[in-house]
Amino acid sequence: MNPLLQRLNPYPFERLRALIKDIVPNPALRPISLGIGEPKHATPALVEQALCGNLQELSGYPPTAGSPKLREACAGWMQRRYGVALNPATQVLPVNGSREALFALAQTVIDPTRAGATVVCPNPFYQIYEGAALLAGADVVFANSDPARNFAPDWSAIDEGTWSRTQLLYVCSPGNPTGAVAPLEEWKMLFELSDRHGFVIASDECYSEIYFRDEAPLGALQAAKALGRDDFKRLIVLTSLSKRSNVPGMRSGFVAGDAAILKDFLLYRTYHGSAMSGVVQAASIAAWNDEEHVIENRALYRQKFEQVTPMLAEVLDVKLPDASFYLWAGVPGGDDIRFSLELLAQYNVAVLPGSLLARDAHGVNPGRGRIRMALVAGVEECLEAARRIVAFTATYSPESK
User: Fold this and answer.
1) pTM score, whole prediction
2) Do β-strands 326-330 and 118-123 pair in parallel, antiparallel, or remain unpaired?
3) What residues make up the domain containing 140?
4) How many domains does the chain have?
């Protein structure tokens, strides 16, 4: 067996299942899960129609690079959304969801034969970053979230020696679980570090279309263009239809940016056997070419967050995030695991303890004392969950055991 498999840590939900295995949730209340970030809104009819209307595509092998029509649709969306012009043939590559691509990109760009190969990522973080780095033969260094900076990663805490060994930097903006969006000044600093040390930046932007401010979140390619970096050197953006269009089961997204990296990434994917089904490609074209369903989807999330956030803010340390569909809340007493387990037992509401989404780094676990709540269900279910959390917190005693 590949010995690197032994370096992997249990996935957060696996760790949570072990913690709750002996808990019997209150049977008088129907279960509500705010734990998993899986969109529950309806799939757009135009996507379903495109899937059903292109079943003939099942009779042929799809090209790994995707069809020209799909790459053009992806590039067209980038132009409309970010004002960034891309060459569909060389700067865009369809992928089977951002999760698959985040993992595969690390296998493409990391050279494990170089001493001290390092990947830097935020903390808390999407666990694929760590697993991809470890299986590529690299070490992982974490940039802890900074409460004083809206829980954005504190990149300044990483020393120059570490940056000099870094081959890949994962950025998540809007962030999971914190919802923080990287501003232009932060991108400028990261680009300068990449220029100085030669590492690749992978910008995970799968939450970019769910936001609560008037201005849409800044994207990495958009930031690069604003700073005069039109070649997008050492920069790859990853995005997905899962959250934007409520189609997590389609496993569809694309990567864009540095043409030289994408050329090698395509070579890797050709051998990896990761071509997107022609049926999914057709449905993806329909989704990327339509914005009406995205606006409606965002309005549903705004309605939920506008109602739920003030309720929870009465009892928890929480506020409206910049973007994404999570609330990142501090709990009384600071024991996120105990709070989560007792909430499940007494009120049958599942949330994800923040400490399971993070690692101990720089002397702390930056997720400890907080919980992640995914407001992915309908408005009424989320409001019911909020009412239960308020009732639970009113009687929760951090001091007692």
Assistant:
1) 0.97
2) unpaired
3) 45-290
4) 2
